[in-house]
Design brief:
The protein is mostly helical. It has helices at about 5-10, 15-35, 45-55, 65-70, 75-90, 90-100, 105-115, 125-155, 155-170.
Length: about 180
């Protein structure tokens, strides 16, 4: 993961984290404003989509629209992705991606991870990220299974599993989003 972000931009680590979240929120807001993100197939006003993206990424659960009635499944998946990025932290997600791609994680990136993950020391930060990811996967998986036992008989297998996964991730990240409708 030789991004060399700090060398090229001369930004402090904290600024990189802030700009990273800003980029994620703006990207999420843009995608949510597109017609295929809403059930009606119409554009969602950018400010409302940006509010939803910010709420999902910052895991606050505040919404302008009911998540079930306004957002199409694609938009719900974008919201779910933003919740997961916000819950884990975008540097954790980027690190997991680079670990999956077998890329090297340099010293500057480890320092950024240390700050992002709240680790007091730089040594072992990649191991910490692995543990966070594994723990998250286990807890959200168990939550999905438990919720699926209730949702699948009522909704059918795939819709029940999708609802179980969405609500397990939302609950684990303490996001407060739901797709059950009003």
């Amino acid at each position: 993961m030789n991004l060399n972000i700090r060398k090229r931009t001369k930004l402090r680590y904290e600024q990189i984290i802030v700009f990273g979240y800003l980029l994620i929120i703006l990207s999420g807001g843009f995608i949510l404003s597109l017609p295929f993100s809403s059930r009606s197939g119409e554009l969602t006003p950018f400010l409302n989509a940006l509010f939803t993206a910010t709420s999902a990424t910052c895991v606050t659960g505040l919404v302008v629209y009911d998540s079930y009635t306004h957002w199409a499944p694609f938009g719900q998946v974008i919201i779910l992705t933003l919740i997961q990025i916000g819950g884990l932290g975008f540097m954790t997600v980027i690190t997991l991606l680079f670990m999956f791609l077998k890329r090297n994680i340099g010293l500057h990136e480890r320092k950024l991870l240390m700050l992002s993950a709240g680790s007091p020391v730089i040594s072992g930060v990649v191991r910490l990220i692995r543990r966070i990811a594994f723990g998250t996967l286990i807890i959200e998986g168990v939550g999905t299974i438990i919720l699926a036992t209730q949702f699948c008989p009522q909704m059918g297998f795939l819709p029940g599993l999708y609802n179980a996964l969405f609500h397990a991730v939302s609950a684990f990240c303490n996001a407060g989003f739901d797709i059950m409708g009003q």
